[in-house]
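Thread amino acids onto this structure.
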């Protein structure tokens, strides 16, 4: 049996699309993905989502969105879409457990995933001192030294958060100016536990007994290398859109973000819509993702009606 609409991915975009589609009686099937709830599951307080003057915890906000979608009949499926066939309708979605779904319309809201430095030592030490999620792993570094790599808002936010646990936090950035917004920079600069190593490129993660012991950096001005001792390394250098499973079937930009129509959420494939971070390299906020999820669902509704 073919579904009317399948939604791939469950961040603010997917959940909002599910709420709208369920209320429009489209009986959406929502594939939860690798990380149900998406990136907000990895944050603590969200202070800029309208309606929460005293902030809301990221996981609580996601749980509420899911419950709201379930209340109107959205059906959630645990698991990951391994491949999709968009060459003809109904589209086919093959799941990692061997099951599959057919659908007339598809909403892609698979978000984006943390990038790695791709330097020696890094990947083999994930979970042994290397992390991409301060909220998940900060607790393990009580009274230890931590390095945060990156110069954007995420790096400032994670470094500031990690000072709750660490004895000191060193921010390592590859340029001599930060990318982060002024307010986030100021917050980090005011924190007495944060040190700065600017204009330095990470070259290798050092270890002993299978645990992180340091990060070797090259100082860009002098070309000299230095190993900074640390027990924890948090890589906070941005995200990559989760579009690999599409295997080039949809138009994306050079980085892999899905290109939508502009005014609406339609992609270059009739019946396929995209919303949230997977189609947004610019704003990447929970509220903009939620807004685009609403748009995608309304676009699907109109598209289905136009075919009746
Ligand atoms: P971002 O703005 O893309 O910043 C990534 C940082 O990592 C940049 O400073 C970049 O250096 C550095 N970097 C990238 N690749 C690197 C590599 N291979 N080696 C070393 N450094 C590398 O990403 P983000 O900080 O995750 O933020 C993403 C978006 O979310 C932004 O729009 C941000 O404003 C937003 N955000 C907002 C909040 C908030 O308001 N509470 C919190 C977090 C994120 P260069 O500067 O040299 O390119």
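Threaded sequence (308 positions):
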């Amino acid at each position: 049996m073919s579904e009317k609409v399948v939604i791939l991915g469950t961040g603010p975009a997917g959940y909002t699309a599910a709420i709208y589609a369920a209320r429009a009686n489209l009986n959406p099937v929502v594939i939860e993905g690798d990380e149900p709830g998406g990136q907000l599951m990895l944050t603590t307080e969200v202070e800029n989502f309208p309606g929460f003057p005293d902030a809301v915890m990221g996981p609580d906000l996601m749980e509420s969105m899911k419950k709201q979608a379930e209340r109107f009949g959205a059906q959630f499926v645990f698991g990951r879409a391994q491949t999709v066939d968009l060459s003809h309708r109904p589209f086919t979605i093959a799941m990692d457990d061997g099951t599959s779904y057919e659908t007339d319309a598809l909403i892609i809201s698979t978000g984006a995933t943390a990038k790695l430095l791709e330097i020696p030592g890094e990947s083999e030490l994930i979970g042994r001192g290397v992390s991409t999620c301060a909220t998940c792993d900060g607790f393990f570094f009580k009274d230890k030294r931590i390095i945060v790599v990156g110069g954007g808002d995420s790096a400032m936010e994670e470094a500031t958060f990690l000072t709750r646990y660490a004895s000191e936090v060193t921010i390592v950035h590859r340029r001599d100016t930060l990318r982060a917004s002024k307010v986030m920079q100021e917050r980090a600069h005011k924190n007495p536990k944060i040190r700065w190593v600017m204009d330095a490129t990470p070259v290798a993660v050092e270890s002993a007994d299978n645990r992180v012991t340091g990060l070797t950096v090259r100082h860009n001005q002098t070309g000299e290398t230095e190993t900074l001792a640390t027990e924890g390394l948090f890589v906070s250098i941005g995200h990559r859109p989760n579009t690999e499973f599409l295997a080039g079937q949809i138009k994306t930009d050079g980085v892999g973000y899905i290109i939508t129509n502009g005014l609406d959420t339609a992609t270059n494939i009739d019946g396929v819509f995209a919303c949230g971070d997977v189609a947004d390299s610019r704003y990447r906020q929970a509220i903009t993702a939620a807004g685009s999820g609403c748009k995608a669902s309304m676009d699907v509704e109109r598209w289905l009606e136009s075919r009746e």
